Amino acid sequence: MRTVGYVRRGSSLRKEMDGNVAVIEFQKSSKSSADAILFTINVGIICGRLLEAERSLPKKVGIVDAHIRQRIGMLLSDRSDKWWAIEPRSDARSLAEEISRLIERDVVPYLDRYLDDKALVALWESGQSPGLTEIQRLKYLTRLNTTKECAA
């Protein structure tokens, strides 16, 4: 993932660009056990211009701070939630290859598209707001458009 600008930090991969952060975060399920670790992948974009003052350091933010977010399954062709299990009999190499392929093919292009503030504005102006409420979408859209006008 380093070749496309992502750096590992704990259980996530991050890419910073122009004050924004793309996050790929591995989430362990509460249903995991000693016999099987269940996990999924959450993805999101954090818009630096929308961060509250106390959260202004991009290094401190995670998926919970994302201004668009969704699970990897929503980016795949069947658009359904996707979870994996790591069990004693799991083929670790095959699992790693599958996840790497999905991240490179589906996640990275999606996140790279929305690392730009203009693309976020266009997404929200279209009425879409993955992982947000309608109120959040309108609030963020207003704030970005207002800060854009102030910067002009």
Describe the structure using short key phrases:
single chain; alpha+beta; 152 residues; six-stranded antiparallel β-sheet; 33% helix; elongated; 6 strands
Which stretches are poorly predicted, pLDDT < 50 over at least 5 residues?
none
Question: Helix and strand string, N-terminal first?
Answer: EEEEEEHHH
**Distance between the amino and carboxyl termini:** 35 Å
Global Rg? 17 Å
Strand content: 15-25%
Report the sheet with the most strands, covering strand number, pairing sense and barrel closure.
6 strands, antiparallel
Describe this structure in words.
- The protein is of the alpha+beta class.
- The chain has one domain (about 1-115).
- About 35% of the residues lie in helices and about 25% in strands.
- The protein is built from 3 helices and 6 strands.
- Strands 1, 2, 3, 4, 5 and 6 form a 6-stranded antiparallel beta sheet that branches.
- A hairpin with a 2-residue loop joins strand 1 and strand 2.
- Helix 2 packs across helix 3.
- The longest helix has 23 residues, at about 90-115.
- It is elongated and about 55 Å long.
- The termini are far apart.
- The mean pLDDT is about 90.
